[in-house]
Design a protein that fits this description.
globular, 76% helix, single chain, 245 residues, mainly alpha, 0% strand, Formate dehydrogenase/DMSO reductase fold
Length: 245
């Protein structure tokens, strides 16, 4: 892939990119989580509310995140019509346009399948597509930043954007924030049901599932950050090459 140069005046003064990085990872995480729950536990009614919540959260996350990314271009119409304008297929920016362009309609279709009560076979088909695409969506934001790490060794680069570690860190972060969002939504839904006089067992089940899974994800993320920071410390001390060679 071609390296990317991010000029400070185009990067540091905008709120669009930080929001996109967060929401893009969140959307990828919720899609992956909802699809996995639907595939393996969706036949049980008590888990269906969790998968449904994940599907619903994905839509506003990717819509708002995609808008932030498109308006950051300065000419948002190019973002909306990316197949016509993004033709450099050696760039993560172009490939990312296709990732977002495929992910957004799939997330809408998956949420619509839940909302309109579509049959389980259709949901499973969308979920099978959603798991890999959700993971790629979370990974992509890290891959985009780590493209700057591919600069030649005699030119500046950002050690924190190390391509060996950053994409996995973004994927773990997306899963963690996705689990937190799903758990929070299920907690709110449970409280609303209780206020309406309906039992809230399904909500509690979703909260417990999200909490336990998020603990495991956070532990994995912490371990990966430790390895990442150790590598950065080695680079700073000059004990290893910034390229790992």
């Amino acid at each position: 892939m071609e390296p990317i140069i991010l000029w400070q005046q185009k990067w540091g003064t905008s709120f669009n990119i930080p929001w996109y990085l967060f929401l893009g990872g969140l959307a990828g995480g919720t899609m992956t989580i909802g699809a996995l729950v639907d595939l393996f536990l969706g036949g049980r009614e008590r888990f269906q509310g969790f998968a449904r919540a994940a599907a619903y959260i994905t839509v506003p996350a990717i819509v708002v995140g995609g808008l932030c990314l498109s308006f950051h271009l300065g000419k948002p119409e190019r973002g909306f019509a990316f197949p016509l304008f993004f033709t450099n297929y050696g760039s993560w920016l172009t490939l990312g346009g296709w990732v977002v362009g495929a992910f957004a309609p799939l997330s809408l279709a998956y949420a619509a399948a839940w909302f309109f009560g579509a049959g389980r076979p259709l949901r499973l088909l969308l979920a099978l597509l959603g798991v890999p695409l959700g993971l790629v969506m979370s990974l992509y934001t890290g891959l985009l930043l780590s493209a700057t790490w591919l600069m030649p060794a005699d030119r500046w680069y950002v050690p924190l954007w190390d391509g060996r570690y950053l994409p996995v860190l973004f994927a773990l972060s997306g899963l963690s924030t996705g689990l937190a969002a799903c758990g929070l939504s299920m907690l709110v839904w449970s409280r609303v049901r209780r206020l309406g006089g309906a039992p809230g067992a399904d909500g509690r089940m979703g909260v417990e599932l999200a909490s336990l899974a998020d603990v495991v994800t956070i532990a994995a993320e912490a371990a990966w950050i430790y390895v990442f920071v150790t590598s950065l410390a080695a680079v700073a001390s000059g004990s290893s090459s910034p390229r790992g060679s």
